[in-house]
Design goal:
The chain is built from ten helices and five strands, in the order E-H-E-H-E-E-H-H-E-H-H-H-H-H-H. With 250 residues, it is of the alpha/beta class. It folds into two domains: 162 residues, P-loop containing nucleotide triphosphate hydrolases (Rossmann fold); 84 residues, no CATH class. It has a five-stranded parallel beta sheet. The longest helix has 18 residues.
Length: 250
């Protein structure tokens, strides 16, 4: 059993890389088990006996926690894919989607440096830069295919992340409204009511989860007016935010 773990920090392109893996396996007509998304807390819920019983040669999963690999079966052949992005663009995306502010920058830098230190010297890891992958998706997808050990027709790997995956405008608006309402509620200095805890919050979380495609892990927040193009931070970050990044060496 070969486990392919698609890792990458939030807003860094791990869903795009996850699409490359699935596209490569589909193009090679290889059967695989898609475990979808896990955190370092939920990976323990996997019943590996059931996964093994399915008899597929490949198992794929996605996570933002690089140390999740330590919880994977020791006997499995592991292939780790990690994608990293200019942290200023990752921060800009998180700022626009999740209302991040300057207080989050040090945490993002720390997570990035720890992840790179943990993975960069491993023989079982392919590290890709988001900017290069975005500029030439077909080459990046073929690099992934070669790394995981499947042979595919180059033409079949074109447009690995097709526009057909883009959620509807209505779904994107609904996703944003729920996120923004939750963010505004956090700023109200009043304790949450029973109805909020037991009804509104579970329903809202359930609605957000329903908007995520389980197979591809694509959700409405993966799309923006820049459509993933790098470099937006140059014009859209404040001088103060740029100064914080410079203090960290960016």
């Amino acid at each position: 059993m070969k486990i392919i773990a698609c890792l990458g920090l939030k807003r860094s392109g791990s869903t795009m890389q996850f699409a490359y893996v699935r596209k490569a396996l589909d193009a090679a007509s290889v059967k695989y088990t898609n475990l979808q998304f896990f955190t370092d807390e939920t990976i323990g819920d996997v019943d590996w006996d059931i996964v093994r019983a399915e008899g597929n040669a490949y198992v794929v999963l996605k996570s933002h926690d690089v140390r999740i690999v330590e919880a994977l079966p020791a006997e499995a052949e592991l292939r780790i894919l990690f994608i990293h992005r200019d942290l200023r663009d990752a921060y800009l995306s998180a700022k626009e989607k999740w209302n991040y502010d300057e207080s989050k920058i040090s945490e993002m830098v720390g997570d990035y440096r720890q992840a790179m230190a943990y993975l960069e010297n491993r023989d079982d890891t392919l590290i890709q830069a988001y900017e290069c992958a975005f500029a030439d998706q077909n080459t990046a997808a073929l690099e992934v295919a070669n790394f995981i050990g499947v042979t595919v027709d180059e033409n079949l790997m074109a447009d690995a992340v097709g526009k057909s995956m883009k959620p509807s405008l209505l779904k994107r608006i609904a996703f944003r409204l729920i996120h923004n309402a939750a963010h505004l509620r956090q700023r109200v200095p009043i304790g949450k009511t029973w109805i909020e805890k037991k009804l509104i919050r579970p329903v809202s979380r359930g609605a957000l989860k329903k908007m995520i495609d389980p197979e591809s892990q694509v959700h409405p927040d993966h799309f923006s007016k820049r459509e993933g193009a790098p470099g937006g931070w140059v014009e859209l970050l404040s001088d103060e935010e740029k100064a914080v990044f410079r203090d960290f060496g960016f």
